Amino acid sequence: MAHNKTIAIIGATGNVGSAIAKCLSVTSNRLLLMSKEAEALAQLISDIRLASPAVEIESATCAKEASWEADLIVVASSSIEGKEIAERIREVAIGKIVISVSQPINGCLNIVASPSNISAAEELQQLLPHSKVVKTFNTAFALDRFTPKSICNFADSFIAGNNGAAVDTVVELVRSAGFNPIPVGDLSASRMLERMQLKTIDQPVKNRSGWLNWLNRLTN
Amino acid sequence: MHEQLDNTLRMKVALSEEEWASVKSFFIPKKLRKRQYLLNAGDVCQYFCFVEKGLLRSFSVDKHANEHVVQFALEGWWISDMGSFLSGDNSIYNIEALEDAELLLLTKQAMDDMLNQIPKMERYFRMLMQNNIVVLQRRILGTLSLSAEEKYKRMMLLYPDILQRSPQQYVASFLGITPETLSRVRKQVSSGK
């Protein structure tokens, strides 16, 4: 069943959620955008329809219902909200790919370590034991958050996940959205990706080709 | 979400609470809206599908663009293209939701893992396949030997819910008769002639 997927984006009106929605609107997938901010959601969908008239896109007000209908779920919320969302969608997310874009940061732009000192993506995987959590997109919009006009300009999107088939699916999705997918290993690699993102917020990278340098710096 | 599956399995096998919890973890819950497709002809059938709620049909389309309904699936039934599911070859069938549907999907890997881990499910699927063979044989003989009126009467007896809920052109296709013939037969049967 290689036909187009239904993708639910939970937290679609946030900075990252809306950026992901815009990028995925150029793919042939059907989008279900979920947000509690009804007005912002309606505006976002209107903007996306204007830019991509062929897109199949709908709003949703319930994370569980949207995830139930979805083939693939994007949790685009803070890591704290992500835990609440995980509780709500656990039963309907069984067997599905769940993309984590959460950043466990506090107001001082520091990583908020979990008690077990694992990444937000690994925490999400623990909360959704029968889903296939994949980390991606968390670094892709680091600069664009502050320059929305350039959304989708940035090419690389790193991908980490434990399930090989799920990573392959996300690689294709990321590619179809206009990014250069770079698999970096299993979900433990998301610790590095989350710290990488923190660096880019803390110290914006001027040269947009500098990602691999950052990667090397963080891993060495 | 798993009520129908629970009821269906209970009729054949007695699972412990632990086994039931494990069984549920193999199924992907999926909602389809009316007229959405679970399978498109030309794709590989990736799922063995259990219907919790709704009505689906599987059908093929011939070179003259005529549709041929092979199967309906109501609550508590299974639907798939077994050939494509097992072989990985492209399917010649489409599977469409005729009503908003709640489904539970098994991938090939999930099914293999479940059958390995839970022998009672192996027994359940053996019985399911046996029943399917009986139904298929009955359907083949009916298609070859029964008149249009006999086919319709048997459908009234066996699948009254499908007659109520499906568009009539799909019922006609399933029975291998034209919609006009179905309309005529229905009038004859309802008037008692």
Explain what you see:
The complex is a heterodimer of chains A (220) and B (193). Chain A has a single domain, classed as NAD(P)-binding Rossmann-like Domain (Rossmann fold, 3-Layer(aba) Sandwich), CATH 3.40.50.720. Chain A is built from eight helices and eight strands. Chain A has helices at 15-24, 38-51, 63-69, 79-89, 120-127, 164-176, 190-202, 211-219; strands spanning 6-10, 30-34, 57-60, 72-75, 97-100, 132-135, 156-161, 180-185. In chain A, helix 1 links the parallel strand 1 and strand 2. In chain B, helix 4 crosses helix 5 (119-145), helix 6 crosses helix 9 and helix 8 (168-175) packs across helix 9 (179-191). Chain B has a domain at 3-118: Jelly Rolls (Sandwich), CATH 2.60.120.10. Chain B has a four-stranded antiparallel sheet with strand order 1-8-3-6. Chain B has 193 residues and is an alpha+beta fold.
Estimate the strand proportion of chain A: 15-25%
Radius of gyration of chain A: 16 Å
Major sheet details of chain B: 4 strands, antiparallel
Q: So what's the overall shape of chain A?
A: globular
Terminal Cα span of chain B: 44 Å
User: Are there runs of chain B of 5+ residues with pLDDT below 50, and where?
Assistant: none
Structural class of chain B: alpha+beta
CATH topology group of chain A: Rossmann fold
Q: How far is the N terminus from the C terminus of chain A?
A: 42 Å
The strand order across the widest sheet of chain B is 1-8-3-6
